[in-house]
Input
Amino acid sequence: MSDMSKSLQAYFKTENDAESAKADLQTYSVSQLSVEHIPEDQKLSLDIPYPGQGPGTPAGANNDLFFSNETPTGKQEENADPAEQADKEFRYLLAFKTDQSDDTDLREIVSKHNGAMEK
Output
């Protein structure tokens, strides 16, 4: 791995989502993958607004986050699991390093597994 590697972090609501994303990421040029539980008493203070919520985002602004189980209004789908609907907090952290300069594919994998990443 070159000196150009960068550390990335992805956040997930369930361990299953985090582990599934980790398995998919292993097919890319990544290293040092680890999944950690975020303790209850350490509320995750990520500035990641859910679509349709949070501070006003200028029209057309790209916040680089996509939540696949939500409608464009930010409302949960009608058939969403009520337990998951009640718990919107990220409980698992997937950390990894990559030397890929373009991390678009990696971000798509995270999104596919209902995760979120900082810009």
